[in-house]
Write a structure and sequence with these properties.
The chain has a single domain, classed as Alpha-Beta Barrel (TIM Barrel). Helices cover 46% and strands 13% of the residues. It contains 13 helices and eleven strands. The strands form three sheets. Strands 1, 2, 3, 10 and 11 form a five-stranded parallel beta sheet that branches. Helix 3 links the parallel strand 1 and strand 2. Helix 3 packs parallel to helix 5. The longest helix is centred in the middle third of the chain and has 19 residues. The protein starts with 10 loop residues before the first helix and ends in a 6-residue tail after the last helix. Bound molecules: zinc ion. Zinc ion binds next to loops.
């Protein structure tokens, strides 16, 4: 879940964010051109889930089964503190071949008992570098033990608040020392700057995908279904999938769609599964661990 995408911080990034707001066509045209210049000749689709609360474990198996029946290959990012507590559930997904990303150690989201809203209780931008390293490392140790091998990928908790180039460079350089190959911790604007998978800060980075009509905004379950001040209405999630299909057709889009959601926010929403089914018809499904290897040749 990613609730606060910090405002643009560099002039170049700011320029592209402004252009994307004024013209979604500018954004998609540029992403497509970058992807083609990187060597992509088709469109891939991957879907990942941040499992940030206990509620996610209650529904994740049924969500996973439905999506696998559609031919999708979901990947999971679970804070290690939760993974330890709910290991029997997540072991079943691991044994089905699901990919897991290190999502740090500490629980970083709580559900407010009174309002029912999801609230952040930890973000890396509020920690010292040493504290970030400690959280990444503790998450690494537990996930490595759980998987029986070194994880390949990482996703920062609430990554929208940890988007500065200096933060990403620091993160990637530390992940590299632990043996990681990629991170998927950047907002959609990065795909319009460097392409759908890029190597700029040390490791491969795989930005998440934006909405078709407002491509700098993340196409995620939090924004569409849970944000207290959300502007999206019921039905908009599916409409945005249809608009994305129009973009795919208009540009003969190649590259990678990297969507993500939280299981507890979508498990009972038919429009989420309908949207995923629709997108999967227009792109080749892969898991996140396969994303960086598309260009690592
Ligand atoms: Zn998270």
């Amino acid at each position: 879940m990613n609730r606060y995408v910090r405002a643009a911080l560099s002039p170049t990034k700011s320029l592209f964010e402004t252009a994307s707001i004024l013209s979604p066509n500018f954004f998609w045209n540029r992403v497509n051109r970058l992807a083609r210049s990187q060597g992509f000749d088709r469109l891939y689709f991957c879907l990942s889930f941040d499992c940030d609360t206990e509620k996610d474990a209650d529904v994740v198996e049924s969500v996973d089964s439905k999506l696998r029946e559609m031919g999708l290959l979901p990947s999971y990012a679970v804070p290690a503190e939760l993974l330890k507590q709910q290991v029997s559930t997540y072991s079943k997904l691991r044994d089905k071949g699901a990919v897991f990303l290190n999502h740090g150690y500490q629980i970083h989201t709580v559900i407010n008992e009174q309002t029912g809203h999801y609230e952040s209780c930890l973000s890396y931008d509020a920690l010292t570098k040493k504290e970030v390293e400690e959280d990444v490392f503790q998450g690494h140790l537990i996930l490595k033990d759980f998987l029986g091998e070194t994880p390949k990928g990482f996703r920062s908790p609430h990554f929208g608040t940890f988007q500065r180039a200096s933060e990403l460079r620091f993160l990637h350089s530390y992940l590299k020392t632990l043996g990681y190959e990629y991170s998927s911790s950047t907002a959609p604007v990065y795909s319009s700057l460097y392409g759908p998978v890029f190597r700029k800060f040390g490791l491969w980075e795989v930005p998440v995908t934006g909405t078709a009509s407002r491509p700098r905004e993340i196409y995620d379950s939090w924004s569409f279904f849970c944000a207290p001040s959300r502007r999206w209405k019921d039905g908009d999630y599916y409409k945005e999938a249809e608009r994305l299909v129009s973009v795919i057709k208009k540009y003969q889009l190649v590259g990678l769609l990297n969507c993500y959601a939280d299981p507890s926010q979508v498990w009972n929403r038919a429009e989420f599964f309908d949207a995923m089914a629709l997108l999967s018809k227009h792109a080749e499904s892969i898991n996140l661990d396969q994303s960086f290897s598309l260009l690592d040749r």
